Each structure stands twice: as structure tokens, then as C-alpha cells.
């Protein structure tokens, strides 16, 4: 008996995965120390050098061709590269400083579009004095720790295709690899990701952050992964609305642990249209925030039961904008979005008018309208709020104190009132924004060393409720007067 062959009812999608074209390439002939143009590099084996640039000391393409740079320090680097290449049995070598004719924009563009694949098969690491320190295989753990890139991606087994391995990693996690990267030109932040997403872009130096938007548009064309939208704005002050795309790779800095909930072939398709990204999906609705929620079919590896989404606000017709872009929506259950919020009360009682708000942090989580930090979804949280005091008499006004509060890092919810300017370790932790260090330093302060008492104020962390949801309240009561 023959079973019925199921066929797609409406549309069939044929996946396109463009690969970089490996065309003309300049290589160093290691024996003769000359540049040669090689027609097809598919069958040519060559050594490739990735290195730190030394300003003014690198050998440029033209200088190599006319052999006028032999006194530069960069020349020695090339000589050593060639010697090493010959020792390892290679006739040719490639180095980005001198093997790209940068006056040819098409050649530069092709080189940058292909570079990821050129480097992908390299293995070896050398220290500053050219001693071998290991291969990518032996160093994969350390490299993974430093870059945040999974080991199976850094070291792809011989029988596996790099593009297939990359395809298993969420787009959001791949973006996070560049979140802390610094490049001389802002466009390179986008261009360095081309190979990781298997897309090509014409290079337009001068377009600035627009390059990163173009990269995302290009990813939409070839990649059905909704986690592309799982970024969080780290901008300050916060914008109420944003477009669907991230502004820079840094917006993905917390996305390294995002994994796909199931295969992206089950996602609704989405496309670039002249109104923005077009997607046909049913939205959820958050009554608490009066915002729509678009779920992204992905979650954090530490909280697998919680689906990630983004908040959307209706702008009329069928158009939506991203709202509250500092959050991914955590949809363990939508009515728990306020879980673990910290509400900061004004100082109650007589004399309260002499107090005002000073510094607040982390700003990305602070909702000034509701006077609260919304921490839903974070496993660890440290916040601070500065109460400033004006006596109207002293020249050194304003006095006052900071309250620090938080949970996580293995600690029960806690609160301390501190004179920050007298506590240098704490000041340092705030300045560098290291929340774990902040939690550690604050714990060294005994609760009884409560600086707020000097101002006649009692500060406590108490349990409260807002809209029926449990919250913490930083409660301040004026006592002295
Ligand atoms: C060699 O090339 C460099 C860079 O283009 C140029 O400045 C220099 O004048 C050239 N020297 C000779 C001798 O051609
Ligand atoms: C480098 O590129 C420029 C601009 O396309 C071209 O005029 C020049 O001939 C190229 N140099 C070589 C050695 O091919
Ligand atoms: C990588 O990080 C893990 C976890 O922090 C640590 O246990 C390990 O020693 C690190 N490995 C290297 C080579 O740095
Ligand atoms: C959206 O919801 C409607 C009504 O519940 C349902 O019929 C439809 O299949 C849903 N569409 C998608 C894309 O899930
Ligand atoms: C509060 O400030 C006013 C001046 O603005 C001052 O006269 C008053 O003494 C202050 N109160 C206290 C308790 O310091």
C-alpha cells in the first residue's frame, strides 16, 4: 500500500546559501619574497598570517611590489612568515597588510567578504617572538573563554562543514561574538561578520553604523532565524521605541547564550519590505504593559522554559515598532514580568522636601515614571539609588547617601546604605560597571554601618505589591524631626 505523499500546501521555499567567491588573489612567493597574482586559489595551498598591526611599520601593497619597505619592522614579520611557511611545506603565504590592492575597491571588497573562510582553516598560534604556542585545537578552550565562541565552532571536526556548524548557532549568539569587538573603522564591525553569516555586502566606507543595518537586512534575506531580533538596547537615555534592527553589535552583548527552541524551518517566514520587516505571525499581548509581544522561538540556555520575545507597539495600519527595547520579553508566563522589581520610595515624613533623586543605576532597567527597576528575567541584579540632601545652609550641599540593593550571585535579597565617595572599592566597581564586584564589595559593609541613620533616615528592604505582583520596596522613613 502506498502512503499519501504530503506536499506543501501553499509555497515551497528553496534555501539559498551563497558562498564567498574565491577569485583572484595576491600571494607572497615565499622563496623569492615577491607578490604574485594567482588566478584560482582553490587548488593552491598557502599559509595565512593574522596579527596585530603596528602603526606605520606595516608593509603596504605598493611598497612590497617595488621592494622599498625592507627597513620597516613589518618586513621582518613577512620574512619570518615566509620562512615558517617554507618549513611547513608551503610555497605561498598571505597577509592582509600587503596582499590586498587597497586602491582597488572591488578587490578590497572581495577580500573582506572572503576573509572569514580564508582564516577559518588556519590552526596555529605563535607568540610575539614566533614561538609556537599551540594550535586552534589545543587552544580551543582558552580561545572559547576569551571570545565567547563555542569550541565546536572554533574547531570544526574534519568531517563537518563549517557553515553547517555555524548554522546550528542562533543568529543572536553569533552577533554577540562581535559585541565587544573594537575596530578602527565602524563599518568593519559589520563587515567582520559577513563570513559568520555567509552573506556578501558591497563595502561602502563612510556609511558608518548603516553598515550594520545593511548586514541585518542581508541576514533576513537568507536566514529564517527570529533570534536576529533578540537584542537589547543599552543606550542611555533609553528610547521608548526602536526599529526592529539593532544599532550595533554591542546590542547583542547579552545574547551569547541564546539558543533556538526548535528548528528555524518552523518559523514564519519574514522578509524585507518597503514598510520594514514583514512577518505574518499572531502576536501575544501583555495586559500589564499594554504592549504586544512577538515571540522569537528561542530562549536562554540557563532558562530553557522561558520563551524570549520582544515588546511591540501598534503604530497604526499594520505597522509596529519595538517598545521598551531594553528588555527581551520573558514569556515564562507573561503576567510575571514584574517579578523581582525594586520600587524606590520617596523619603516619607517631615523634612522630605529636602531630599531629591541623585544618580540611579543601572539606567537601562530604571523606569523613572514608576520609580522602579524592572529586573524580570535577570538571575543576578544589583541596583543603586542616590538620595541627595539639601539643608540650604552648608556650602558642601548636597549631602546624602546611596542605597545599594540586589539579589543573585548566591545571595538573598539585600540592601545597604553607603556613602559612596568614601568607599573606593565600591566607587571603582560602580565606575567600571562590574555588578558582581559591586555585590561582593557591598556585602563587606555591615548592615549596622547604615550611613542613612546619620541623616535621621531608616532604610529597609520590604516586600510589597504592585498591580497584584510581588515586588521589593526600598523603604525610607524620616525619623529625626
Ligand atoms: C614605492 O611605492 C611607494 C608606495 O606607493 C611610493 O611611495 C614610493 O615612491 C615607491 N618607490 C619607488 C622607488 O618606486
Ligand atoms: C591596483 O588597483 C588599481 C585600481 O583598480 C589599479 O589601477 C592598479 O593597476 C592595481 N595594481 C596592480 C598591481 O594590479
Ligand atoms: C575556561 O573557563 C572555564 C570556566 O570558567 C575554566 O574552568 C577553565 O579553566 C578555562 N580554561 C582556560 C584554558 O582558560
Ligand atoms: C493565528 O491565529 C488564528 C486564530 O487563532 C489561527 O487560525 C491561525 O492559524 C494563527 N496563525 C498563525 C500563523 O499561527
Ligand atoms: C530644608 O531646606 C530649607 C532650605 O531650603 C532649610 O531652611 C531647612 O532648614 C532644611 N531642613 C533641614 C531639616 O535641614
Can you characterise this structure?
- The protein has 481 residues and is an alpha+beta fold.
- It contains twelve helices and 24 strands.
- Strands 7, 8, 11, 12, 13, 14 and 15 form a seven-stranded antiparallel beta sheet that branches. Strands 18-19-16-24-23 form a five-stranded mixed beta sheet, with no helix packed on it. Strands 2-1-4-3 form a four-stranded mixed beta sheet.
- Strand 18 (366-367) and strand 19 (372-373) form a beta hairpin.
- Helix 11 (424-432) runs antiparallel to helix 12.
- The chain binds 2-acetamido-2-deoxy-beta-D-glucopyranose (5 copies).
- One 2-acetamido-2-deoxy-beta-D-glucopyranose binds at residues 62-63, 66, 68.
- Residues 46-126 form the Heterokaryon incompatibility domain.
Overall pLDDT confidence? 78
Whole-number radius of gyration?
28 Å
List ligands, each type once: 2-acetamido-2-deoxy-beta-D-glucopyranose
The helicity comes to 10-25%
Main sheet record: 7 strands, antiparallel
Strand content: 25-35%
Through-space gap between termini:
92 Å
The SS-based structural class is alpha+beta
The strand count comes to: 24
How many separate helices?
A: 12
Low-confidence stretches: 1-22, 333-338
Amino acid at each position: 500500500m502506498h502512503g499519501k505523499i504530503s506536499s506543501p500546501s501553499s509555497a515551497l521555499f528553496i534555501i539559498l546559501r551563497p558562498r564567498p567567491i574565491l577569485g583572484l588573489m595576491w600571494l607572497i612567493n615565499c622563496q623569492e619574497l615577491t607578490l604574485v597574482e594567482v588566478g584560482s586559489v582553490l587548488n593552491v595551498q598557502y599559509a595565512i598570517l593574522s596579527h596585530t598591526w603596528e602603526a606605520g611599520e606595516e608593509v603596504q601593497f605598493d611598497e612590497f611590489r617595488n621592494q622599498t619597505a625592507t627597513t620597516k619592522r613589518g618586513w621582518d614579520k613577512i620574512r619570518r612568515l615566509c620562512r615558517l611557511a617554507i618549513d611547513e611545506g608551503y610555497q605561498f603565504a598571505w597577509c592582509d597588510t600587503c596582499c590586498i590592492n587597497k586602491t582597488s575597491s572591488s578587490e578590497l571588497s572581495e577580500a573582506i567578504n572572503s576573509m572569514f573562510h580564508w582564516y577559518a582553516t588556519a590552526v596555529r598560534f605563535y607568540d610575539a617572538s614566533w614561538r609556537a604556542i599551540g594550535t586552534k585545537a589545543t587552544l580551543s578552550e582558552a580561545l572559547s573563554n576569551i571570545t565567547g565562541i563555542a569550541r565546536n565552532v572554533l574547531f570544526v571536526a574534519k568531517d563537518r562543514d563549517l557553515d553547517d556548524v555555524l548554522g546550528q548557532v542562533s543568529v543572536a549568539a553569533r552577533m554577540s561574538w562581535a559585541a565587544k569587538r573594537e575596530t578602527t573603522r565602524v563599518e568593519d564591525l559589520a563587515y567582520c561578520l559577513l563570513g559568520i553569516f555567509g552573506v556578501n555586502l558591497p563595502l561602502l566606507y563612510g556609511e558608518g553604523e548603516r553598515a550594520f543595518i545593511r548586514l541585518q537586512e542581508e541576514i533576513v534575506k537568507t536566514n529564517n532565524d527570529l533570534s536576529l531580533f533578540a537584542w537589547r538596547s543599552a543606550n542611555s537615555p533609553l528610547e521608548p521605541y526602536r526599529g526592529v534592527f539593532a544599532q550595533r553589535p554591542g546590542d547583542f552583548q547579552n545574547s551569547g547564550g541564546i539558543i533556538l527552541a526548535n528548528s528555524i524551518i518552523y518559523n514564519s517566514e519574514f522578509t524585507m519590505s518597503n514598510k520594514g520587516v514583514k512577518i505574518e505571525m499572531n502576536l501575544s499581548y501583555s495586559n500589564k504593559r499594554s504592549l504586544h509581544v512577538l515571540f522569537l522561538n528561542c530562549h536562554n540556555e540557563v532558562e530553557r522554559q522561558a520563551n524570549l520575545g520582544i515588546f511591540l507597539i501598534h503604530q497604526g495600519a499594520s505597522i509596529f515598532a519595538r517598545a521598551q527595547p531594553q528588555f527581551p520579553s520573558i514569556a515564562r508566563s507573561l503576567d510575571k514580568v514584574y517579578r523581582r522589581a525594586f520600587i524606590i520610595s520617596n523619603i516619607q515624613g517631615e523634612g522630605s522636601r529636602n531630599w531629591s533623586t541623585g544618580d540611579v543605576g543601572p539606567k537601562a532597567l530604571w523606569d523613572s515614571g514608576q520609580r522602579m527597576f524592572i529586573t524580570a528575567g535577570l538571575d543576578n541584579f544589583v541596583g543603586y539609588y542616590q538620595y541627595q540632601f539639601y539643608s540650604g545652609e552648608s556650602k558642601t550641599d548636597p549631602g546624602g547617601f546611596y542605597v545599594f540593593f540586589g539579589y543573585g550571585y548566591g545571595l538573598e535579597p539585600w540592601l545597604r546604605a553607603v556613602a559612596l565617595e568614601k568607599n573606593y572599592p565600591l566607587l571603582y566597581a560602580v565606575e567600571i560597571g562590574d555588578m558582581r564586584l559591586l555585590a561582593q564589595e557591598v556585602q563587606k559593609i555591615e548592615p549596622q554601618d547604615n550611613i542613612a541613620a546619620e541623616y535621621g533616615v531608616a532604610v529597609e528592604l520590604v516586600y510589597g505589591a504592585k498591580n497584584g505582583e510581588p515586588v521589593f520596596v526600598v523603604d525610607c522613613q524620616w525619623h529625626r524631626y
